[in-house]
Every structure is written in C-alpha cells, then in structure tokens.
Amino acid sequence: MCQCQLAGFCLLILLQLGMQAQTSLHSGGTQSEMLDTVYIAPDTIKSVRVDTVFEYIDENIRSKIMKKQPAIAIMCGPQIGVDISRMYPLYSKTSNLGKAGFNGMFVYNTLFVNVGVSVATNQTANIHYSKHYTDFHHWIDTVKTVLDEYIEIIGSDTI
Amino acid sequence: MIKKTYIPKTDTVLSDSTFSHKNQYWNIQIPIEFGYIYKSKKTWFGFGIGPCIRLIMTHSSNSVIIGDSSFVQEKNYLHNLVVDIGGMVFIKRKIKRNIWTTAYISGIVPLQSNYQNYNRNLFNQSLSLSLGLEYYLRL
Q1: Which among A44, A120, A147, B134 could disulfide-bond with A99, CB atoms 3.0 to 4.6 Å apart, if both were Cys?
Q2: Residue B127 forms contact with A (CB below 8 Å)
Q3: Within a domain: residue B2?
Q4: What are the tens digits of pLDDT across the range A117-130?
Q5: Is residue B3, in this structure, part of any structural domain at all?
C-alpha cells in the first residue's frame, strides 16, 4: 500500500515536470527569437508574417518610444561671406576682401560638432608717407693766417 | 708768430622721401567647434566654441623712394601655422525638405597668432559673417 502511494506520487511529480517543460518549450527562448514584435495602433491592418506577435499599445507609450530615438543628422554645404581682421597693435584695421569655404556639421539631438574649411583674405590700407628732410652738417675748418710781427730784443738774453 | 683762427662752417642738404606700405593676408581656417542647438519647427539657433587652426600667409610690400634715387621695392612672405580659439553663432532655416539656409557669425580670439618676428605682441583678430546653403541628411 505504501509502495503504491509512493509510485503514484512519483508519477504525479513526473507529470508536472513534463507539463512545465512543454510550456517552456512554447514560450521559451528558441521559439520567441523567431518571432517579430510589431507595435501597431489598434484597428490597424498590416500584412505581416504568420509568426508575428501583435502587441497593442496606447498612443502615450508609443510617443514615448518614438522620443527615445536620437535625432542624428549631417548638414554640409558651401558658404561665402566677409571677414574683418585686425592686426594690433601695429595696424588698427584692415580692408576686407572676402571669405569662402565649406562647412560640415554632425548633429546629435541638440548637440553638434562643426568642422569647416575656409579661406579668408584681407589687406591693410596702403600707408603712404612723404617726408621732407633738412640735414644740417656742421664742421670746423682751420684757416691758417700768418701775421708778421716784429720782436724787439732787449739785452743779451737768449730767446 | 703764427695766429690760428677757427671758422665754423654750416652746410644744408635738402631731401625728399616717400614710403608706402601694404600688407595682404591669406588665412586658411579650419575651425572645429562643439556646441548646442535650440530647435524650433523650421529654424535652428546654435552656438559653439572650439579650437581654430589657421595658416596665416602674410604678403608684405614696401616701396621706398629717397631723394631723386630710384625706388626700392621690398617684399616679404611670412607663413604662420597657429591654433587659436574660435566661437560662432548661427541660425539655420529650412527652405525645402533637405535644403537649409544658414548664416554664421564667427570670431577668432588670438591665442597663438603672435608674430614674434615683427613685434613681441602682434595679434590677428578676426570676425566674419558668412551665408550658405546646406544639405540636410537624416541618419
């Protein structure tokens, strides 16, 4: 009697284990990987595969899912303009001739990285000086003037 | 007896001179800027700051005439590769699906552009306004 009860209990355990294994096979990893999950609004008809799982979500959750996608973009193009340059303290200002270049921008949501190449040219105003110099040269010349003088010799002293 | 007399003499020389000077600069600028964009529906506003690599090519030309002699022409070519700080403010407006117009105001604050061969402190500031068309590609 006791052996019959033990055998029945073991059989019950085996049956439960078998059912759990069967349910895990249906909802387990190998089969669910083959399925596609599609988020569509209610009352929407789409042509999908047979193995597609439909998951109906309301609009609020859908809009939140859409907002999570980052907005990544590239903007690039030519540009043309004017360039004001100043060389100080030597030159106060320069005349401006122009600027041309190419600009590229990588945008990630609200942040960006901008890289550009441009050529700018400008020139200083033509400075013109006109000066009048007056140079005074001084020197000293020696003029030799020989004057004859008579010398009176008094006595016998030797000069 | 010999008597020496010293007589000072003065001579005057008059001369004219003219000097003209002109500098011309060519800058190749490569700004790399990081910044923030405020987006409205069809218009973007933004500002950025970052390093700006510049190759400054200076062409200096002097002309000197002294007196009646022929003029002397002096030319100098200087090249400088410098790294400065650049900043910019821009506005972009969408005109078609992928075509945007842009207006940039960018400036360069001299950090390294010091012409030490001219003067100990000679800096090159730059402020530019440029307009352009840009192609928008959403990734």
Answers
A1: A120
A2: yes
A3: no
A4: 999 888 776 777 77
A5: no
Q: B130–A86: do the CB atoms touch at under 8 Å? A: no
* Nearest residue, CB atoms, A130 vs list B6, B13, B18: B18
Question: How far apart are alpha carbons B27 and B108 in whole angstroms?
Answer: 12
Contact residues for A19 (Cβ-Cβ < 8 A; gap 6+): none
Report the number of distinct structural domains present in chain B.
1
Residue B40, token pair as written in the block: 């409205």
Domain holding B54, by residue range, is 17-135
Q: Nearest C-alpha of chain B: how many angstroms from A125? A: 6
Please answer whether residues A99 and B107 qualify as being in contact, where contact means their C-beta atoms are separated by less than 8 angstroms.
no
- Please indicate, yes or no, if residue B114 is contained in any of the structural domains: yes
pLDDT, tens digit (0-9, with 9 covering 90-100), for A40-94: 666 665 566 666 666 666 666 666 666 667 789 999 999 999 888 776 666 656 6
DSSP string, A86-97: EEETT-S-EEEE
- Asked whether the whole model's pTM tops 0.80, one would answer no
- Note whether B20 contacts A126, CB cutoff 8 Å: yes
Q: Contact at 8 Å (CB) between A22 and A4?
A: no
